[in-house]
Amino acid sequence: MKKNRRLLLATSVILALPLMSGCATKIKASSTHNPAPPEAFSSYGRIALKPVSFPSGYRGNPAALARIGGNLEKNLEPSLKQWNSGSANGRVLTIEPVVEEMSFKSGAKRVFLGPFAGSSGVLMHVTFRDQTGKVIARPQFFQRTNAMSGGFSLGVNDNLMLMRIAKLASDYTVANYAQPVGGPTGADDVAVAAN
């Protein structure tokens, strides 16, 4: 009887290992900190925010992308309104957020598979361009939800991840308005890709 239990336990562990190895997201950031732009964003008379998008040809979750975009617009709207109320100086800064990679586990997937659905993660680059098209800054932002917290929250933490990445991007924009200071990417040392 004990031999059967041991065999059953060993078989269960062997079968569960491949499932658990797929839980970690393969999406990685390249750094934990974004460098400061060459000048403060306040030197631009107008600042415009483009809609969040995926790179051409990338197939991601459009509902998750819309949530990131909605949160980013909501976070930046009061600041943009204030900044753009002053006199124009001929200089325009355009903010172009692009979600480069996304692995988003929906609530339905979390309900049925729980932590076995794997981790969620998102990597977004935001390009700041002047009126000539010159890139002024290109910070990256990263967020993830591990499989266990995503699974046991039934997807709530996956949705919070989308709010957090929008907040990181809007915080960077606001922080660099008065003076160039850079800001965090949202990644910890574990989430940074090895070079």
How is this structure best described in words?
By secondary structure, the chain is of the alpha+beta class. The protein has a single domain (24-185), classed as Double Stranded RNA Binding Domain (2-Layer Sandwich), CATH 3.30.160. It is 40% helix and 20% strand. The protein contains 5 helices and 7 strands; from the N terminus they run αββαβαβββααβ. Strands 2, 3, 4, 5 and 6 form a 5-stranded mixed beta sheet that branches. Strands 1-7 form a two-stranded antiparallel sheet. Helix 2 (62-83) runs parallel beside helix 5 (156-178). The chain is elongated, with a radius of gyration of 21 Å. 31% of the residues are buried.
**Helical residue percent band:** 40-55%
Stated plainly, the CATH topology is called Double Stranded RNA Binding Domain
Binned strand content: 15-25%
CATH class: Alpha Beta
Report the order of strands and helices.
HEEHEHEEEHHE
| Corresponding CATH architecture | 2-Layer Sandwich
The number of distinct structural domains comes to 1
The structure class reads: alpha+beta
Mean pLDDT reading: 83
Radius of gyration from the CA trace?
21 Å
Protein name: DUF4410 domain-containing protein
Keywords: Signal
Signal peptide: 1-21
